[in-house]
Design goal:
alpha/beta, Rossmann fold, ProC C-terminal domain-like fold, 2 domains, eight-stranded mixed beta sheet, 12 helices, elongated
């Protein structure tokens, strides 16, 4: 099902892998045409990548701001404030700044960009690279519900996005920002278990990864609680409940909860630096 075309020009300051994934997703879902996008990056090879799928590459940050309506800040966190201060004089009421830089608060963005700038802070995660991001956004400055809807349209083309208060973005970081690492660990462990039980490594890894993918899809598409879905698999006295018992004895559930909380706390610390 189509998401609808966004009648805005989109620019990228920073043309790394995340920016590339976003741009390709926008194009593939028909949300923004390649001819309506522009990108800059200090590394020529990255500009060349964008040019290879028909996005206009430019040298200067100011040129992106002059040509685009929605501007993605896809640079390392330490460069966000300098970039915004550099282009501040070119920002007008038509512009919406979307920052995907970790740890940069709306207050710091406003200080660098100016009081009247429309600001949206987004926390995506790495599955954006395969069109399956879990993202959260919060609004700042002069950003309106209309701006939020435009950002929602864009990010829905590369996964899912929710809107939260900024105070919850550290929790988002701890859960979906860091979460892929926890899932990769689980996939690796499942595959190792299969190898220990006698399966060839390649077959075990494929089965483990597909099992996680399919299970996640069941949660999202059935709307059933994971506990209900778990109960559908665990027959009385069967194999699954035997394995599940071992997970509970090992404290896997508590370990995952604690991992999310530890990452959340660290995200809070980083945002205060």
């Amino acid at each position: 099902m189509g998401l609808g075309k966004l009648e805005k020009r989109v620019g990228f300051i920073g043309a790394g892998q995340m920016a590339e994934a976003l741009a390709r997703g926008f194009i593939s879902k028909g949300v923004v045409k390649a001819s309506d996008m522009i990108a800059t990056d200090p590394v020529k090879a990255r500009r060349d990548v964008f040019e290879s799928f028909s996005v206009k590459p430019v040298i200067s940050n100011a040129e992106v701001v002059k040509e685009a309506d929605i501007i993605f800040l896809a640079v390392k966190p330490q460069f966000v404030a300098p970039v915004l201060k550099e282009v501040r004089q070119h920002l007008t009421e038509k512009h919406t700044i979307v920052s995907i830089a970790a740890g940069k608060t709306l207050a710091s963005l406003k200080e660098a960009a100016g009081e009247d700038t429309k600001l949206v802070r987004v926390m995506p995660n790495t599955p954006c690279l395969v069109g399956e991001t879990a993202s959260a956004m919060c609004l700042g400055g002069k950003a309106s519900d209309e701006d939020a809807e435009e950002v929602r349209t864009l990010f829905s083309s590369v996964g899912r996005i929710v809107q939260v208060d900024e105070k919850l973005l550290s929790a988002v970081t701890g859960l979906s920002g860091s979460g892929p690492a926890y899932v990769f660990l689980m996939i690796e462990a499942l595959a190792d278990g299969g190898v220990r039980a006698g399966l060839p490594r390649d077959i075990s890894m494929a089965l483990a990864a597909q099992t996680v993918l399919g299970s996640a899809k069941m949660v999202l598409e059935t709307g059933k609680h994971p506990g209900q879905l778990k109960d559908m698999v665990t027959s009385p006295g069967g194999t699954t409940i035997a394995g599940y018992h071992e997970l509970e004895k090992s404290g896997v559930r508590s370990g995952i909860i604690n991992a999310v909380l530890a990452a959340t706390n660290r995200a809070d610390e980083i945002s205060r630096l």
